[in-house]
Amino acid sequence: MSTWHTVAKIQDIPAGAGRTFCVDGKLIAVFQIDDAIYAISDLCPHMGASLGEGDVEDGAVTCPWHAWRFCVKDGSWLDSPKSPLKAETYAVRVEADDILVEIPTDRDADGQPHDSADGPSADEASPDETSRGGAPHGD
Ligand code: FES
Hints:
By secondary structure, this protein is mainly β. The protein has one helix and eleven strands. The site of FE2/S2 (inorganic) cluster (FES) has 8 residues, from loops.
């Protein structure tokens, strides 16, 4: 299960940069790169710095605390591409000037699937990776 939330207007995100928004109790970093919008968890998977405050270059955001770099498109840790460590990603769509982010409702606040015995398994709760990626906008 998931819910789409309107988080910002296109003009709220400077081209080539990110901004952080609180959505349904989660901090989400939203980036505008090459006329597309991407959303990842704002919390750096290393020690929790705000990735939305990081510098962005060539589709990578640099964490402001220890300079680890993450891909804003798929959340991968670019300094160690084989590592399973990554920033959680969120599906995005743009309607007129509104940026909407899909927030799974079957995850805990830390982005992990619920451990409920009668809930979906971790595999079933995993988002469809094909739904991830930038949402182009046409302004
Ligand atoms: S908190 Fe982000 S690299 Fe350390």
